[in-house]
Each structure stands twice: as structure tokens, then as C-alpha cells.
């Protein structure tokens, strides 16, 4: 029996490509997987990971208690990039290496889609036409506007590249700003306040932490331009949804494009559900065939590299 790789992801389980599975099996690993189609409960999760050398993780939690059952764990690769479900301190203490995949193009393309869908009233026109009405009302153009990117990491930078053809001014705020990356993409590095005040569209691309919880709230929305648009493909916890909803109802904000929510899956109880000027998606920004394929390969190669004394392809440390 080879070293075990626990494939924990829920809906992606079947999507980890054949080539990635073959890479692992040819390298002598045994794959054990969550075939339930749902997130495992804690006991099921513990059972699957206790002997694993590597975990390919989804959005299920890895706290110190769950990790305490692991006897052989050396590497965890997240089939995604958000690691807010990981106790990273516990993993570090255990000497476990942690890697993520590259999904920045998929997410940046989806953020751009939400920007355009919001400004172009796309979902509202679609609903009107299907209702047999011919309601025509104007939309906005992106060209000549100012786009503010909060968090200038992999996804924020890719979005700036995709926006390059739209004749927009791009501002970015990041407390750990890579000045060369900003300059290369003709992006002005500004304070969060300046970004809030000057942007017609604000797109969030930063992690969910205690510090970033509700960074978009009644106070910060108040600083935003009247009629601005908010796009969130990062994490629901970044936005106070009640404050956002009030701003959409009052017309302070023209629209919002959202892929993530404070509580997922989003249901009718969420006031954002009944708003007309928001575009809602079910946390799918990264869910492209291309990213699933490449993600599987990255996870497999990362695990093999760690076994051979190296590091994951996209290591956290
Ligand atoms: P990244 O680590 O490359 O970039 C994150 C950036 O945020 C970093 O440059 C960091 O310095 C910056 N940052 C940290 N704290 C900040 C703060 N207080 N204010 C502003 N910036 C701050 O990550 P990424 O790959 O660009 O991903 C960004 C986020 O997108 C992830 O954390 C994840 O939660 C989310 N995401 C969502 C989906 C989805 O399916 N909707 C998919 C992938 C990623």
C-alpha cells in the first residue's frame, strides 16, 4: 500500500481530472476519497484523514481537534485559494506544508463579468424579456470610469490586466502592496479611503480575517461615490449585508455583483435576494473546467514534490 492521499472535496471529487489521479497513482500514492457528494461530518472526516500523508481539501474545516487524529500528515493542498477553513497555526506546529492552486484567471474573469452584468442590467433585461415585456431603460458604460481593487494579490492583479482594454483608471489598495506589480499594470496605489471616495466600481480581492470582517459597512459605504457598484467574489464576511442592502434600496449604490455571502447557500431570508439591482451567483467564481483541470494537476504535483523533499507549487510558507 502506498502513501495515502485523502481527496476530501465535495462536488469537485469527480472533477479531479484523470491525469491528476494518474500522476498520483504512478508516483505510488493510494487515493481515498469522499464519494458522498456532500461535506463530511467531523467523525467521517477524521476517519478519512487519520492515515493520510496528503489531503486535497475543499471548504470543510480543519481545526486543531480534527487535525489531531492525523498520524502521517505531511502536506495539505487546498483545491482553491481561500484557507480561512484551515487552522494554519496548528498545521505549522505539526510541520505540515500547505499549498493552494492557481484560480486567479477564472475568478478575475468572473469579477469582470459581475462588473459588466451589474452595469449593463443584464439579469434585469433577461427577466423582463422572458416575462414578455419590452422594458427598455438605460445602462452604464465602464469606459472612462474609475475601478478600485481592494487586495492586489493574484486575482486583483489579473483583474487589472483584464481591465486594461476598457480605458479605465485603476486604483488599488493593499497594506502589503507590491509597488512593482502595480506600476507594471499602470495601477495607482492609494489608501482605502481614497479608493472608496474615488471609485465608480469597487471589487474585493482580499482574504477573510478578523481584521477584514465587515470592511464594507455603513460607514465605508457612506464614503463611497453615490451610484457606485460593489463587486464581491472574495468572502461574504467582508461585507455587512444589511448595510449593503440598505444602500441598494436607498439608491446610494447603483448595484452589486455578488458571488459570496455571510451565510451560504444564500436563501430567500437574505434581504439581498429580493433586490433588483444586485446580481447573485452561487459561489462559482473559480468553478471553470480549466481551473478544475489545472487545479487537480497542481495538487498532484505539489504532493509529489513534497514527498520528494520539495515544496507545494503554490506554498503558503
Ligand atoms: P492573494 O493572497 O494572492 O491576494 C490577497 C491580497 O489581499 C494580498 O495581496 C494581501 O496583501 C491583500 N490583503 C490582505 N489583507 C488586506 C487588507 N486588510 N486590505 C486589503 N488587502 C489585503 O489571494 P487571491 O488568490 O488574490 O484571492 C483573494 C481572495 O479571493 C481569497 O482570499 C479568497 O477568499 C477569494 N476567492 C474566492 C473564490 C470564489 O470562488 N468566489 C475563488 C478564489 C478566491
What would you say this structure looks like, in words?
The chain is an alpha/beta fold and 317 residues long. The protein contains twelve helices and twelve strands. The strands form two sheets. A seven-stranded parallel β-sheet has the order 8-7-6-9-10-11-12, with helices on both faces. Helix 4 links the parallel strand 4 and strand 5. The longest helix has 19 residues. It is globular and about 65 Å long. Bound molecules: nicotinamide-adenine-dinucleotide. The site of nicotinamide-adenine-dinucleotide has 31 residues, from helix 5 and helix 7. Nicotinamide-adenine-dinucleotide (NAD) binds next to helix 5 and helix 7.
Give structural attributes.
317 residues; alpha/beta; seven-stranded parallel beta sheet; 12 strands; binds nicotinamide-adenine-dinucleotide
Give the topology.
Blueprint: E1 4-7, H1 18-26, E2 30-33, H2 42-49, E3 54-57, H3 64-67, E4 75-78, H4 88-93, E5 97-99, H5 104-119, H6 122-130, E6 146-150, H7 154-163, E7 169-173, H8 179-184, E8 188-189, H9 192-198, E9 201-204, H10 218-223, E10 228-232, H11 241-250, E11 253-258, E12 278-280, H12 289-307
Parallel strand pairs: 1-2, 1-3, 3-4, 4-5, 6-7, 6-9, 7-8, 9-10, 10-11, 11-12
Helix pairs in contact: 1-12, 5-7
The structure holds nicotinamide-adenine-dinucleotide (NAD).
Rg (CA only): 21 Å
Shape assignment: globular
Residue runs with pLDDT of under 50 for 5 or more positions: none
Order of helices and strands: EHEHEHEHEHHEHEHEHEHEHEEH
The helix fraction, in percent, is 25-40%
Amino acid at each position: 500500500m502506498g502513501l495515502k492521499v485523502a481527496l476530501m472535496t465535495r462536488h469537485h471529487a469527480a472533477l479531479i481530472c484523470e491525469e491528476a489521479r494518474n500522476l498520483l497513482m504512478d508516483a505510488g500514492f493510494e487515493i481515498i476519497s469522499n464519494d458522498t457528494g456532500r461535506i463530511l461530518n467531523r467523525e467521517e472526516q477524521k476517519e478519512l484523514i487519520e492515515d493520510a500523508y496528503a489531503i486535497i481539501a475543499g471548504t470543510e474545516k480543519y481545526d486543531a481537534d480534527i487535525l489531531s487524529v492525523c498520524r502521517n500528515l505531511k502536506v495539505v493542498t487546498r483545491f482553491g485559494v481561500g484557507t480561512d477553513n484551515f487552522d494554519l497555526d496548528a498545521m505549522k506546529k505539526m510541520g505540515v506544508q500547505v499549498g493552494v492552486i492557481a484560480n486567479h484567471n477564472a475568478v478575475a474573469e468572473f469579477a469582470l463579468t459581475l462588473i459588466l452584468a451589474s452595469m449593463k442590467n443584464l439579469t434585469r433585461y433577461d427577466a423582463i424579456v422572458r416575462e414578455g415585456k419590452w422594458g427598455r431603460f438605460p445602462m452604464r458604460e465602464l469606459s472612462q470610469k474609475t475601478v478600485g481593487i481592494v487586495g492586489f494579490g493574484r486575482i486583483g492583479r489579473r483583474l487589472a490586466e483584464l481591465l486594461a482594454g476598457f480605458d479605465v483608471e485603476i486604483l488599488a489598495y493593499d497594506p502589503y502592496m507590491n509597488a512593482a506589480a502595480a506600476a507594471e499594470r499602470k495601477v495607482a496605489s492609494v489608501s482605502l479611503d481614497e479608493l472608496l471616495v474615488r471609485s465608480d466600481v469597487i471589487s474585493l480581492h482580499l482574504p477573510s480575517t478578523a481584521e477584514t470582517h465587515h470592511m464594507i459597512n455603513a460607514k465605508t459605504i457612506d464614503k463611497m461615490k453615490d451610484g457606485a457598484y460593489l463587486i464581491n467574489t472574495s468572502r461574504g464576511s467582508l461585507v455587512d449585508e444589511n448595510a449593503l442592502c440598505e444602500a441598494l434600496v436607498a439608491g446610494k449604490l447603483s448595484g452589486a455583483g455578488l458571488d459570496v455571502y455571510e451565510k451560504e447557500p444564500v436563501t430567500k431570508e437574505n434581504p439581498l435576494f429580493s433586490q433588483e439591482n444586485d446580481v447573485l451567483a452561487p459561489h462559482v467564481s473559480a468553478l471553470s473546467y480549466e481551473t478544475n483541470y489545472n487545479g487537480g494537476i497542481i495538487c498532484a504535483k505539489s504532493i509529489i514534490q513534497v514527498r520528494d523533499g520539495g515544496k507545494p507549487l503554490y506554498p503558503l510558507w
